[in-house]
Amino acid sequence: MDEMIFENDGLFGDMTETPRKNLPIFYLLDTSGSMIGEPIAILNRAMTETMEELKKVAKKNSNAKLQIAVMEFNTNVKWMQPDGLEEAEDFYWVDLQAGGLTEVGAALKELDSKLSRETFLKGIMGNLMPVIIIMTDGGATSDYKKELDEIKKNRWFQNASKIGFAVGEYADLDMIADVVGNSEAVIKTDDMKTFAKLIRLASVTASKIGSVSRTSAGGSITEEIVKTVKGESEHQPLPEEPPFPDPVPEDIPPFPDPVSEDDPWDETEFD
C-alpha cells in the first residue's frame, strides 16, 4: 500500500504560532449606596461597552490573551467571576446593584488573596504584569490601612499598573492615591457620564500597552495610560449624553512591538 502523505494546507492553522501570555486586568468597582439610581445604571452601561471594546482588542492581539476579573465592593465584596479570570472574548457583563457601605479594606484583602499563582494567576503560559483599575465616588467607611499595608507586600500588586478613578465631588482623592500609590495615577472626573467615556479609553489603552512589556516608550505603563486618558479629558469636550456608541478614539497607540528578551519582568519569582 502506498504511503499516505498529508501536507499542511492551512486547515489546521499555523502550527508554529507563538504561545501568548495572559494579561490580567482587574476592576475594583464601588457599588455602595451612593451609587444607587443613575450612577449604577451608567456604570453598568459603561462597563458593558468597555467589555465589547476589549473583545475587539483581544481578537487582534497577537501578543497576549486578555483576561478580566471584576470585583464589586460595598459592605461586602463579590467577584463577578468567582472561579477566576475570564478571557475577554468570552466575558459577559452582569449588571451590578448598588447599596451598603464602602469597605475599601475588605476589597484590598480580597484582591490580595487573588493576586497569587495559587488562585487567579495560575495560567499555564504565565502572566504579564497585571493592570488594576479602581473606581469610587466616595471614601472608605472604615480604616483600610492594615489591609493596604498587607497587599503592598504582594509582589504582583507592587509591580501592577494601578489606575484610580475618583468620580464626583465626594470622592476621597487621598484615599485613592494611597491605594494606587501615586497621586498622578488618579483620574478625577466630575460625574459618571465622564467616567463612562474615560474607563473605556483607559481599558483599551491598558490592554494594548500592557500586552508587551513592563514599560513603554517614554515611561511606565501607568504613566502612558494616565497621559492618554487625561489628554482626552482635557482637550476634547465631552457630549451632554453618554458617548455610546462612539468608538474609542483611533489615536490610541497600536500594539507595540512584542516584549524583548531583555525585559526585566520575571513572574517565576512570585508566589
Would you kindly provide a written description of the structure presented here, covering whatever features stand out?
By secondary structure, this protein is an alpha/beta fold. It has a single domain, classed as 3-Layer(aba) Sandwich (Rossmann fold). It has seven helices and nine strands, in the order βαβββαβααβαβαββα. It has helices at residues 38-60, 104-114, 145-151, 155-159, 173-180, 192-209, 221-235; strands at 21-30, 64-73, 77-79, 86-87, 131-136, 161-167, 186-189, 215-216, 219-220. Strands 1, 2, 3, 4, 5, 6 and 7 form a seven-stranded mixed sheet that branches. A two-stranded antiparallel sheet has the order 8-9. Strand 6 (161-167), helix 5 (173-180) and strand 7 (186-189) form a beta-alpha-beta unit. Helix 6 runs antiparallel to helix 7 (221-235). The longest helix has 23 residues, at 38-60.
Descriptive terms for the model:
271 residues; alpha/beta; Rossmann fold; 7-stranded mixed sheet; two-stranded antiparallel sheet; 7 helices; 9 strands; globular
Topology:
Layout: E1 21-30, H1 38-60, E2 64-73, E3 77-79, E4 86-87, H2 104-114, E5 131-136, H3 145-151, H4 155-159, E6 161-167, H5 173-180, E7 186-189, H6 192-209, E8 215-216, E9 219-220, H7 221-235
Parallel strand pairs: 1-2, 1-5, 5-6, 6-7
Antiparallel strand pairs: 2-3, 2-4, 8-9
Helix pairs in contact: 1-6, 2-3, 6-7
